Structures are given as C-alpha cells and as structure tokens.
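We treat protein structure as text, and this decision shapes the records that our systems exchange. This encoding replaces a full spatial description with a residue-level series of whole-number codes. Below, we set out a record of this kind in full and without editing:
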Amino acid sequence: MMVKTKSFNFKKKEFLKKILFSSSFLFSSVFFVAAGCATQTVDKNPGNGDRKTPGTTTNLAKSWDTKVNLGLGQSWFDAKSKDPNRVTKFTENLKAEFDKLKNANPETKDLPDVNFDFVGIDDSKTKISQLKSSDNSDNAIDFAIVDATTTIEDDREKELYNGLQTLTWAFKNTADKPTFYQDGTESDPLRKSAKELSDLFNKNPYNEWSSKNNDPQKWDGIAYRFLYDESNPRRIISYYRGMIMISGDDKTRQEIKKAWNEKDWEKFRNFGIIHGKLTSAGKFKMQNFIIKKHFGDKFKAKSLNEDRTNHTEKYLQGDGFTIGQDPKYKIAFDDEASFAWTENKKDGKQYHSTENNGKVEILMVTNPASYDVGSFRPTFNKTQADMISEAFVNLAKNGKDAYGPNVGYNGYRKIDQTDPEFRKIYAESN
C-alpha cells in the first residue's frame, strides 16, 4: 500500500517552520522529502501510539497543530442556545481547559498555543468522510462528534482515532447498564422499558405540556426534565436507543400489537411506517436491527431499506413527531423519548392522534447504541488528541461546557483504546 506524504500546512504548523527551516530552502526541501518518506507511515490501528513517529519532543512538534477545526452539529446548538456569543464562549472555554493540560505537561508546555475553530456540520456521514479525507489544510476538519453507528459503519478500516465518548442524562425508564432484545414479548426488558416510558408520556397529554413554573411537565428551554432520572447527582449514561411508536384508537393499536406479538411482518408493516433519513441511527438503522431480529424469517427482505423499496406506499420519510396526523401511517420511528427535547407548540400536530379516541404509545425501544463518539483525523497526533479529549471531560466537570448541554451531551469520558465500549455495544446490538 502506498502512503501519501502530505506537505506541511504552515497555517497550522508555524512552530515547525520556526524550528526546522534554519537552513537553505533547497536543503530543507530535500530533508523533508527524505524525512517524510522515512517516518510518516499512517498507523491504521488507532490504539497504537502516535500517528507519526512517537517519542521525542521534536517528533511531537512536527505533528503539533496550532489550529484545530472541530466539526460539530450546529442546528440544535443554534435552536437551543439563545446566547449570540455561544460559539466564541465554547471555543474559548475549551482552549482554556486545553491550555491547563498542555502547560502542565513537560513534553508540551513549550509547544505553541492551540486555537479551536467551530465548523458547523450536521450530517454524520459528511463528518466521517471529511475526517478520513482531511489533508490538514486550514479549512479541513481535525475532529468531529458523530453517532457511534455511523462512526463504525463508515470507518470499517478504523482509520480514525476514536478518542471521546459523549454521555447523556438517563431517562426514568433507563436501566443502569445496557439491556438487549430477548423475545419482544411483554416480558422483554425493552418492551417493559417502552411501556414505562409510554405511561409517563401519556400521564398528561403532550399537547397540554407547558412552560408554567408549577407545571410538572415544565419546559426549561432545552428539555422536559420530568422525563429524566431525578437522582442526585443525576445518572449519566453512555448509550441511547431508538423507539417504535404506534397511534390510533384502542382497536387499531391492539391490532398493531397483535401483529407484533405474532411476528406477522406483512400485517405490521401494512399499518404504514414513518421513518427518518436512511442514514439516521436512532430513526432508521436501530429499528432495522430490532425488526430483523424480532420478525426473523417472517421478514423476507435483506434489510428494512429493501422492504421500503419494494413497498414504497407503506413508508414515509418524515419527522417522528408527526405520528397520528396521517391515517395511512400508524407507526413511527424516532430517537427514544424524542418528545423530551421537542417543545410543544400546542398546535395538535406533534405526537398527537387526530382520530376519535386516538392515542400515541411507545410500543418498543431498540437495542442500545453508544452515544456519540468524538474522533480525530487519521494523522492527528495522539498526545494532542488525548489532551483535547481530556479538555472536553474537564469542561463538563467544571460546568463550563457552552455546547454539550444544548445538544444532549451532559458529560464526556475518554475512550478505553484497549477495549472500546461503543464497539462492544454495536456488536451485541446487531
């Protein structure tokens, strides 16, 4: 395999220019070509050391980035945070935490300062693609946070360095440890969890949830906190799930449940399914896994997408909260408890059945997937990557994370490179 040796980008490597370009341009050019061919072999196993020759401060300096571009989701950040300076506050706080770590490390304290730029990218596949093809130029991203499923499936060769695990508050129906599909019956822990969440959701109709201070279903600007675990301190977990909702009157919902219990896929699917983008983990992929597992040989297609292609009239790509609006679609896929962070507009068009005596229920939650994972481009220096990951961890611990809580990240931890939990959960869930 031929490894491409990239030119040094001086906008991001000013320190290297200062310490190495002391000789003539001709000599330096020859030196770098030789050094590049000799040392810059990319390590395809992200658990093994630095991406470039590890060991000396000089080698660390060669691959030290002075500008780190962060590919992060922007739409939810913009929607949830009303602070016009939210991006600047986040990047400055992250830099402050990083500087503490850098200056406390004898190997890095004399290296140049590092600045962070926020690059708004919402699409998971785009982020992984850009990371893998990053040339470390001034506009290329160096780091991105992406759902774990896409991180694994779009980086089969494990080129990226997965450094950061995001964490989120547990819901009241969430177990301390990940539980998995057993048989899909009412005694299945996933079915029980869905029932608990459904009862909580329907205790008062969603359309009546408000922002009044004394309302038990109070909206606080980011979420309806009554749905979350109330332990002190709050439980935070490293995984999430998708859910399968159903709508209709009592008779219709019972028929849907009967089709599920009897594993009659044709009948179940023919109630009509609303789903998210095909690339969405919590709104399509995770439901694909659980449906194939539950219906077994009654599910004839190779995948849910193939079944969708063969029966287009029974599928609708759209928002899960629209369930109950179109009588042709009685089933919807969404992230578990998506109504927790969706503010009620009081227009009767969110999580609401328009049928007489109609109701929305949560039938099933899916197997878990690890919460989003922060990854670095293949040639990013591992020492610097670990410091950035630790800076995120400290940012949350110190209550200075201006980004995470707005997009559902309530904490972080560094990923164990010897046995990454997110890969184990993926393997067992599928």
User: Anything to note?
Assistant: The longest strand covers residues 161-169. The longest helix spans residues 86-104. The chain has 15 helices and 14 strands. Confidence is low (pLDDT under 50) at residues 1-11, 14-55.
